Please model this.
Amino acid sequence: MVFWNLEKLDLEEFRPGIMSKAEIGSNLIMACMEIGPGKEDTGHSHAFDQCGIVLEGQIEMVIGEERRVLHPKEAYFIRSGVRHGWKTFRDPVKLVDISLKQPV
Amino acid sequence: MVFWNLEKLDLEEFRPGIMSKAEIGSNLIMACMEIGPGKEDTGHSHAFDQCGIVLEGQIEMVIGEERRVLHPKEAYFIRSGVRHGWKTFRDPVKLVDISLKQPV
Model:
């Protein structure tokens, strides 16, 4: 499918508390993710860029030295190699995340 | 800058009738674009994936054999090599578009 209605998309469990649907092309992975309340990634890094847009809810993101609570219609860009993490609060968060597809 | 508020972002003219701001990393280009009314790209293709999310307005997109008018909170994924084009109507369209950064 090349078009997604992000409000009606059927997601599947990706990890506990994280629902997802991904489109995987030759170079890019686009994923719609719904992250439950009170979830956290304390931080990691990888050798490729990653970016995304928040659609619903609030998520705290830390990218390198910058920390910010993102709301709907806010976007992030994580440069290759920069440590980043995130945390959700009381409400679920829906976002679309895009990253480079890794060579197999 | 790693965070964008897409409602307050300052855009610059990219082409006549198209305002844009882009973040360019090692692998990805994320661009917020505002396309004026009555603009059109009749179609082209390229050897890398491209995807995006509509934030405001309506845009008709043709990707391969599929044609659809996209509204806010709808997303598209254009696979490498697939011919695609778009058309705007009476209102401007704001979207975020992500594509692979081309090797120089």
User: Anything to note?
Assistant: The two ends of chain B are 23 Å apart (CA to CA). The first strand of chain B starts at residue 3 and ends at 5. Chain B is about 0% helix and 60% strand. Residues 13-100 of chain B form a domain with the Jelly Rolls fold (CATH 2.60.120.10).
